[in-house]
Design a protein that fits this description.
The structure holds 2 protein chains of 2 kinds.
Chain A (H helix, E strand, L loop, with lengths): L2 H22 L3 H21 L3 H26 L13 H27 L5 H4 L9 H9 L3 H28 L4 H5 L1
Helix pairs in contact in A: 1-2, 2-3
Chain B lengths: L1 H33 L15 H11 L10 H17 L10 E3 L2 E3 L9 H11 L1 H10 L3 H24 L1 H7 L4 H7 L12 H4 L1 H14 L11 H4 L9 H26 L10 H22 L5 H29 L1
Helix pairs in contact in B: 1-12, 1-13, 2-12, 3-4, 3-5, 3-12, 5-6, 6-10, 6-14, 7-14, 10-12, 10-14, 12-13
Classes of the chains: A mainly alpha, B mainly alpha.
Amino acid sequence: MNIDTAIFIISAVVAVFGATMMVFQRNPVASVLYLILSIVAQAVLYIQLGALFIGAILIIVYAGAVLVLFLFVIMMLNLRGGEDLGKPSPPLSQITKYFIALLIFAEMVFVVRSAFFRDAGPTGILTTPADQFGSVESVATLLFTRYLYPFELASILLLAAIVGAVVMARRESRSDKDLPGEVQK
Amino acid sequence: MILISSVKVIVVVVAVLTGCAWSTWLERKVVGHMQHRMGPTFAGPYGLLQPIADFIKLIFKEDIVPSGVERVAYGLAPVLSFIPAMLVFAVVPFAADATLFGHEIKMVISDLNIGILFVFAVTSLGVYGLVMAGWSSGSKYSLLGSLRASAQMISYEVSYGLSIVGIVLIANTLSLRELVEMQGSDSIWFFSNWFVFKQPLGFLLYLTCAIAETNRLPFDMPEAESELVAGYHTEYSSMRFATFFVSEYANMLAVSAVGATLFFGGWQGPYLPSIVWFILKVFCFMFFYIWLRGTFPRFRYDQLMSFGWKVLFPLALLNVIVTAAFVMLD
C-alpha cells in the first residue's frame, strides 16, 4: 500500500466518522466540532485529488469563518444538549425533512452513478486540461466565463442574507431601549 | 527525497521552538529595559538561561484539571492552538536554494503553488483552540475570553486576507517562493524591489491585522488580565498553559516570517548568507511587536471592533481597488 492510498483511507474514514458523530451528538457544540473534523478531512481529500485551491478555500471559508460563526452563536445561546430534542417536531417539518433527505440521497446516487458508469464527472471539469486541473487559474477562468451568472447570483443571494441579518438585528435592539450597549454611546 | 524532507521538518521545528523560547527572554528583557528595569538577570549571563528555567518550572508543576470541564475538548485545545502556528512554517522559504552533494535542495519544506492560501487556511483554524479552551473550561471568564477571541479573529481576518491581495495582484502568483524571488535585486539598492514600497498601505494593514490575529497588545482582548483574569486560558496550568504560551509566540513568529517574506523580500539581501537575512528580518518584526507591547495601552472592546470594521476594512478594500486599477492600466 503506497502512501497516497493510506492518506486517502485515513482521511475518508475520518470524514465519514466526523459526519456520523456530528449527527449522533446530543451536545450542539460537540456536533459542530465533529463537523469541523469532517470538513478538514474533506479538504485533505480535495488536495489529494489535485484540487489545491478548492481544498484551501474549503478550510478558509467553511472551517475558518462559517463554522466559527456557527459555534459563536451556539455558545452565545448556550444550548446544552438534550433541551429541545425531547419533543417531536410538527408533522409538516417531519415530511419536509424526509423529503429533503430523499432529494439529497437521489442526487448523491445520480452523481456517483454518472461518475462510475458513464466515465464522466460533472461537465465543468472535462473542459480544463489535466495539468491545470484544480489550479487557481482554471477555477477562476471557469468561474468568470462559463459560470459567471450563477456566480453573480450566488453573491446577490449572500448580499440579501447580510442585509436581512442587519435589518433583523436593528429591529431587535430598537425594541428594548435599556440595552447596555446603547448607554455607552 | 523523504530523508531530505524529514531533516528539513526537524530542523525547522527545532528552530521555531528555540525561537519561541528565546522570544520570551527577549520580550522580558526588552520590556524590562523600556520600563527602567533589568529584566531577567539571574539564570546565566544576561539571564539567557531563563527560558530553560521557566520550562523546568512549568513541566514540574501539578497539572490541575478543574472539575466540570469537558475532558476531551479541554485536553485538545492547547494542541489545536499550537499545531496551526507550526504548520505555517511548512510553506515559508527560509533561505536561498542550496546544492549539497550534487542535490538541489529547496530551502522550504513544501513549495506549494498556493502557499499564501495555505497560510491563511491554517491560521484561520487557530481560533478553534481558543474557542474550545474557553468553552470546555466551564468558567465564565474563559467563555468570555474565547467569545472575544472568535469575534476578534473573524473580524480582523477579513482585512488580513484583503491586505495581501494587492501583492497577489501585482505579482500574479500565490507561491511564496516565487514572491521572494521577485523581490530580489542585484543593484546597490538591494531593497528596491521589496513589496513594502509598492504596497505601503497593504503592509500597514497586514501589520495591524497580524497583531490582532495573534491576540497581542494592544489587541489582547481575549486575555485582558485586568478584566478577565487570564481569558481563555484561566483554568489551565502546568504544561497545558505552557503550550498556549508557546503557541502565542509561535504565532508571532509565523506572522513575522510571513510578513518578512511577503513585504521585505524574505531571505533576499547582499553580503550576508540568506538565512541570516531572514532571521534578521523576523527579529525586527518580533522587536516591533514587543516595542508595541511596551508602548500602547489596551484598546476597549467596542473600539477594537469599530476600528476593525470601520477603518481597516474600508482601507483594505480601497487598497485592493486602487492596486487592481493600476495593474489593469499597466
